[in-house]
Amino acid sequence: MPPRKNDDYMEVASDDSLPSDVDEVYNGKSKGKGKGKATERKTREKGKSKNNEQPYAWEASYVRSWDTVQEDEAGSLQGAVEDLIARNRRRRLLAPSTAIRRTIIRHLVLVLDLSSSMMDRDMRPTRFDLMLEYARSFISEWFDQNPLGQIGIVGMRSGIAERIGEMSGNPQDVLKTISERHKLEPAGDPSLQNAVEMARGSMSHLPTHSSREIIIIFGSLTTVDPGNIHDTLDACVKDRIRIAVVALAAEMKICRDLCDKTGGSFGVALNDGHFKDLLFELIPPPAQRAVSRAAGAGAGTSNPTADLMMMGFPTRLPNTSAPALCVCHSDLKSEGFLCPRCSAKLCDVPTDCDICGLMIVSSPHLARSYHHLFPVKPYSAVVDGAKVSPSNACTGCSSSFSKSSASSTITDGVSPFGRYKCPDCKNDFCTDCDVFVHDVVHCCPGCGK
C-alpha cells in the first residue's frame, strides 16, 4: 500500500519490509539519523552480549592474573612468586597425619571415556588429549607411590566397553597401552554399565587382602546402558569395589550414586588445573572401611582380623650371568631376577611369578609402601623470632635460610623466616626440604622417624 501524503504529515503503512528503526517522519524528512542510531545501538548490544559470554574453562585461570601478585619494595615480583609457591606447598602439607588403616596392595581399573564428547575444546587442546596427558602422569606417580599395586585400562565408546590394557604391575606396560593415540580415537556414546561390569569381572578373582578400585574419567552427559545400572551398582557394593568419578562436563546423579554407595569420591573439574588436582588426589591409598567380624571371637568389633600373605624376595642376576629365557616375555636376557620358590627367571619386580604364582617384591618396594601407614608429622612453621634457633643452616641441605617475603604473621602455614621445625627432633628445615621430606623421602632426616 503506497504512503498517503497530506499537507503537514505523511502516513507510512505497516509493512515488514520497512525498517523497524524508523519511528516518525515529518514532512518527508526523517527526524535525525534513525537508521544510523539503530545500527550503533545494535552494535553496542552485540558487544555487550559478547562480553557477557562465559569464557572457556581454561581461560578462567588467566582472568586478571596480574591482581594475584604484588611488587615488593624493589619493584620485583620474585618474592611474590616464591610466596605463592610456598603457600600452595604448605596447604597440601597441612593435611592431618593421623594413623589410618590403609591397604598397601591395590588393584585399580582406570576407565577412560572415549566418546565423541571428549573432542570438545573447553579444555586445551581437547578433553581427550588432556585426559591422555594426565592419565600418563597419573599412572607414573601412582606406581611410584604404590609399587605393589596393579593397574588395568578400560575404555568406553560406541556403547560398548573395550579392554585396552590387562591388569599389570609394570608401569611401562601400562603406559604402552595408551601411548598410541590413533587406537583410542573417540567415537559414539559411552556406556557406564558395560565399563563397570568389565572392570568388576577383571577383579573378581582378587584376594580379600587387596583393595578393588575403579576410577572413571567421564566427560559425557549421557550413558547408553543395556540393562539396569543400579543392579551393577549393588553388585559392586557386594564385592566391596570402590568407585571414584572425575567428571569433565557436569554432575550426573548416577555418577554421584556410584561414588556415594561404594565409598568413593566424586568431583567435577572446573579447568585443567582442577582436573589434575582431582585425579592426583586419588593416588594415596584410601582409608579401609570397617567390616564387622563373623560370629565368634572378637564379634561385634569394627576392625577385621589381619590376614597373612606370602611374599618372596628374589635374587638379582648381574649382566654377566648366562643368558636365559624369562617366563614373562620369553626373551633371552642376562639380567633379571630369580624366583625364590621355583627359580624361574623374571624381568622385573614387583610381579607375580607365572610359574608358581608367588608374589615377588623387593625390600625397597615393600618399605616404600609403608609410608602411607606411618606418615611424617607435618613440620610447624617458625613464626616467633625469639624462638628461632641460632643455627643459620638447614638440617637437611645445609643451605642458609632466606627470609620469606611474607608478613611477620603465619598465613597458610608459611613461615616468615623460611624455617619449619620438626615436632620430634626440633630441627629446622627450609621450604624445599620440607616438601622433599613429605613427598619423596617420607622420613625425617633429623630424627629418623
From TrEMBL:
Region (Disordered): 1-53
Gene3D superfamilies referenced in this protein's UniProt entry, alphabetically: von Willebrand factor, type A domain (3.40.50.410), Zinc/RING finger domain, C3HC4 (zinc finger) (3.30.40.10)
Domain VWFA, chain residue ranges per copy: 107-258
Keyword Zinc-finger: yes
Entries under Pfam families matching the protein: C1_4 (PF07975), Ssl1 (PF04056)
ZnF start-end (C4-type): 339-356
Keywords on record: DNA damage, DNA repair, Metal-binding, Nucleus, Transcription, Transcription regulation, Zinc, Zinc-finger
Domain of life: Eukaryota
Subcellular location per the Swiss-Prot or TrEMBL entry: Nucleus
Bias type Basic and acidic residues, positions: 37-51
Function as written in the Swiss-Prot or TrEMBL entry: Component of the general transcription and DNA repair factor IIH (TFIIH) core complex, which is involved in general and transcription-coupled nucleotide excision repair (NER) of damaged DNA and, when complexed to TFIIK, in RNA transcription by RNA polymerase II.
Annotated PANTHER family: GENERAL TRANSCRIPTION FACTOR IIH SUBUNIT 2 (PTHR12695), GENERAL TRANSCRIPTION FACTOR IIH SUBUNIT 2-RELATED (PTHR12695:SF2)
Family membership noted in the UniProt record: Belongs to the GTF2H2 family.
NCBIfam families: ssl1 (TIGR00622)
Name of the protein this chain belongs to: General transcription and DNA repair factor IIH
Species in which this protein is naturally found: Schizopora paradoxa
